[in-house]
Amino acid sequence: MTNRFPRAFLALLLACPAAAADEPKAVQLDCTPEAFPALAIEGDEVSRYSNGKPAAFRGFADPCVRRDPVGDVLWLAYSWPHMEHLGGGPRDYAVGVETHLASSADGGKTWERAQVLWPRTAARFDDPKTGAIRDGFVSHEVPNFVPCTIDGTPSWVGVRLDYFLAREGNYKARNNASFCLRLLVASDPRGLADAPRITLGHSMSA
After folding, report:
1. What digits encode the pLDDT tens for the residues 1-30?
2. DSSP string, the chain
3. Half-sphere exposure of 89 (CA within 13 A, CB side)
4. Which of 1-15, 59-73, 190-204 is predicted with the least confidence, judged by mean pLDDT?
5. 75: exposed, middle or buried (C-beta count within 10 Å: 0-12, 13-18, 19+)?
6. CA geometry: angle at 57 spanning 53 and 60, to 5°?
7. In degrees, to the nearest 5, what angle opens at C-alpha 145 toward C-alphas 42 and 69?
8. CA 100: distance to chain centroid?
9. How are beta strands 41-42 and 111-118 bridged, if at all?
10. Beta partners for 144?
11. Which pTM does this prediction carry?
């Protein structure tokens, strides 16, 4: 498995071809709600407060769509920003981001959530200034994935951004040294959920 990762990283880079000199100019569109209605995903909804109102930090973000080379299914990986009540007062909320996976069998007309691909995970890190242990979570966002062939084996390569957010201070007190990229390889998109990974980042994120 270890030998596959350099090839996996190369496959991900090659999935983003450079623009050709004779490419037509980009079409300019006015992104109004009428022209581009909000994405609806069956089985998933935006984050809400405990009173049922939409949370300030919500939505389906950073979408990445790929066609499965086996069959005619479209896969969508996307960030799911949300807010969680920590049990204190009415303002005791923390933000976080998970990565969800959805699929479409009708060319993208409708989508259905397949699974939480990379859930926000509990973690503990040392405060770089005080050395105190901080409880919090690692968020996963800005996903990308691509089907490819590695050593003759059909594979999917995925990558995501990870970073630590402490319960106290949360996003405002984030430490940039925790930011890193995680690279994973699996036989299908669902398998990326628990696939082996390598880390590109700081020593704190190793």
Report:
1. 445 556 665 566 555 555 555 677 887 878
2. -TTHHHHHHHHHHHTSPPPPTTPPPPPP----TTTSPPP-EET----B-TTSSBPSS-S-EEEEEEE-SSSS-EEEEEEEEEEEE-SSSTT-EEEEEEEEEEEESSTTSSEEEEEEEE--EEEEEE-TTT--EEEEEEEEEEEEEEEEEETTEEEEEEEEEEEEEETTTGGGG--GGG-EEEEEEESSGGGGGG--EEEEE-GGG-
3. 1
4. 1-15
5. buried
6. 100
7. 80
8. 7
9. parallel
10. 159
11. 0.81
Q: Record the tokens describing residue 23, joined without a space.
A: 């490419």
Both tokens of 1, joined, read 């498995």
Burial 1-20 (b: 16+ CB within 10 A, else e): eeebbebbbebbeeeeeeee
d(CA 183, CA 181): 7
Which residue, chain included where needed, has tokens 């499965």? 68
Is residue 143 within 8 Å of residue 64, measured between CB atoms? yes
